[in-house]
Amino acid sequence: xxxxxxxxxxxxxxxxxxxxxxxxxxxxxxxxxxxxxxxxxxxxxxxxxxxxxxxxxxxxxxxxxxxxxxxxxxxxxxxxxxxxxxxxxxxxxxxxxxxxxxxxxxxxxxxxxxxxxxxxxxxxxxxxxxxxxxxxxxxxxxxxxxxxxxxxxxxxxxxxxxxxxxxxxxxxxxxxxxxxxxxxxxxxxxxxxxxxxxxxxxxxxxxxxxxxxxxxxxxxxxxxxxxxxxxxxxx
Length: 235
Fold this sequence. Notes:
By secondary structure, the protein is α/β, with parallel strands linked by helices. The chain has one domain: Rossmann fold (3-Layer(aba) Sandwich), CATH 3.40.50. The protein has helices spanning 18-27, 29-33, 54-60, 68-71, 81-95, 116-126, 142-154, 158-162, 179-187, 197-204, 208-214, and strands at 5-10, 37-39, 42-44, 48-50, 102-106, 131-139, 193-196. The strands form 2 sheets. The chain has a 5-stranded parallel sheet, sandwiched between helices. It has a two-stranded antiparallel sheet with strand order 3-4. α3 packs across α5 (81-95) and α5 crosses α6. The protein starts with a strand and ends in a 21-residue tail after the last helix. The mean pLDDT is 90.
C-alpha cells in the first residue's frame, strides 16, 4: 500500500536537549539512511556539517525577527535570495524521497514562527510533494525554560542582545514563551507531538529517548555521550 512520504519536523524549543538530539542524528545519519530515514543536514563555513537546519529556519522566519544568528550576520532573512535557496534545497531533498521513506529536519529556531507569512513560506516548500508533516515540539517547565533561555542569550554579546527588535521581533519578549501559540502554529501542518522534557529526564535521565520515540526512531547504542552536548552555533 502506498504511504505518503513523511517529514518529522523537530521545531525545538531551545534548551530542551536539542543539541544532543542533533548530534545523535548527525552521528547516526548513515545508519538511519539504511533504514529509509534521511537526516537533513546543512554545511556551514564555521561549523561544518550539522543536523541543525539554521539556514532553512531563517529562510522561513519573518524578516524583522532579530535572532542571534541574524545579529551575527550569518543567517538570511526570509525574503532574501539566500533564504529562498535554503527553502528550495529542502524542497528538492524532500521531493527525492521514495515511497515509504521519511526525513527528519531539526531546527529549534522554527519555534519562533508565529505569522501567516511564515506559514505561507512553509506551505510553498511542502506543496505538491504528497508529504505528511509531523511536527515534534519539546517543552520544559516555564521557570527552567525562562532561566535557560536567559542564560543562552547572556552567553552572547550584551551589545548584540540589546540591539534586538521590538514586539514579536525581539527574542527577549514574553511572546517567545507562549506555548499555545507555538502548538497552534504547527497544527496547521500536521498532528503535533509534544515531548515533556522534565518527565523524560526524570524517567530516563535524558530527553533523547523520548525525543527519538516522538520521531518514530529507536535508540541505537548508548545515549550517555550525548547528554552534555553544548551548542556551537548561534540560536
